[in-house]
Design goal:
single chain; seven-stranded mixed beta sheet; globular; Rossmann fold; 367 residues; 27% helix; 2 domains
Length: 367
């Protein structure tokens, strides 16, 4: 998840963890709630970043745990700062949000794999990780109106992508309807499957709080991250974050769910010596408070299961975190098409704006 704020839901403790924007003498400050705790070695960070780009952790939980433990050590320091905070939250039976802010340079580090040597942190129901991106969009969604939530759902499966890539999104639609039936949520299904149709649908709906888009997505060498929506003829329309933002910017969205492969993945050039922001990250930077995207390829089945869990728990405190945690389980299957098979360690990412619940939409996070 990605987000642009540091506030946690009521009843939760939040701690903002930040890697300093600049290194001095090869060291980078690690700050907890704005106060320096210790230094992180820049060479160690760079080495770990390079190693993670080989992505062996995608199919190997042991590798994922090892990387996660190194990330834990970076944030913990020799003084055990992170451990002391987590231990205190455990003693007080207090759920905790760790809002991690790295800046673009190290945003590819998979902090959702943090492992304390015993287990992955996100497998503990009381611990939540949020990737802080920006605080740009959170203020506009801080005033909560007492009315049903309004959601627009759109699924796209362009005909020219081939029969192996046809998405079975009808089941996802049915499950969302059933999962949200107990909550005051009005849902509009947009069937044009185009960015222009989405824009018109939101306008006709009188605005909305949540936009959920299901489709294929990719990262292209020439234009970066794209969502494969459709033209009027049903062919592929490679929609960039800039074009999607043009369709959404006039509406005060509280959450955007980008249910497509790699929509939360930071990407670089072919040689692995450069990186740029993910689709989700860019949407947070443009002003959407909460954006959810996938840090890996994801199967139809995996995406549908997660979506059902997420919307089923939408109304409970910390709900989005509970649902998202299932998305980072080490054995969540990746998208099972002709190009991608296997097991994914990373799963869903959220950005401030994965990067959580609607009670957390005042935050601008992205994972």
């Amino acid at each position: 998840m990605s987000t642009g704020s540091t506030e946690a839901a009521p009843g939760f403790k939040r701690v903002r963890v930040k890697l300093a924007d600049e290194a001095k003498g090869g060291k980078r400050d690690v700050l907890f709630d704005g106060i320096k705790s210790h230094d992180a070695d820049d060479a160690t960070l760079a080495s770990l970043l390079k190693e993670t780009k080989f992505e062996q952790w995608k199919t190997n939980p042991v590798e994922g745990a090892e990387i996660g433990n190194r990330l834990y050590s970076i944030l913990n320091g020799t003084g055990g700062k992170l451990k002391s905070i987590l231990d205190a939250a455990y003693r007080e039976s207090e759920p905790i949000y760790l809002n991690i802010e790295t800046g673009p340079e190290f945003s590819a580090l998979p902090f959702e794999l943090i492992h304390d040597g015993g287990r992955f942190l996100l497998l503990d129901n009381g611990k939540h990780l949020v990737h802080m991106v920006s605080e740009k969009g959170w203020r506009k969604s801080s005033n909560i109106e007492k009315r049903p939530l309004k959601m627009v759902f759109m699924a796209s499966s362009p005909t020219d992508l081939g029969t192996d890539n046809v998405l079975k999104f009808e089941e996802e639609e049915d499950r969302i309807i059933k999962a949200t039936a107990k909550y005051p949520i009005d849902i509009k299904f947009e069937d044009s499957d185009s960015v222009e149709g989405l824009k018109d649908s939101i306008f006709e709906f009188g605005g909305c709080d949540i936009v959920h888009i299901t489709s294929h997505a990719d990262v292209l060498d020439d234009i970066g991250p794209v969502f494969y929506l459709e033209t009027e003829a049903g062919y592929t329309d490679r929609v960039t974050p800039e074009r999607l933002w043009e369709a959404l910017k006039k509406h005060k969205l509280r959450m955007l769910f980008l249910s497509g492969c790699n929509t939360g993945k930071v990407h670089g050039d072919r040689h692995g010596d450069g990186s740029t922001e993910s689709f989700a990250y860019r949407m947070v930077e443009k002003g959407i408070p909460v954006v959810l995207g996938w840090g890996l390829p994801v199967s139809d089945i995996g995406a549908t299961v997660f979506t059902t869990e997420f919307y089923d728990s939408l109304g409970s405190p910390g709900s989005g975190h509970k649902g998202q945690r299932r998305g980072v389980h080490p054995h969540l299957p990746c998208r099972s098409d002709s190009r991608n098979r296997g097991q994914g360690v990373r799963g869903l990412r959220g950005f401030p704006a994965p990067r959580r619940s609607l009670q957390d939409t005042r935050n601008g996070r992205s994972f």
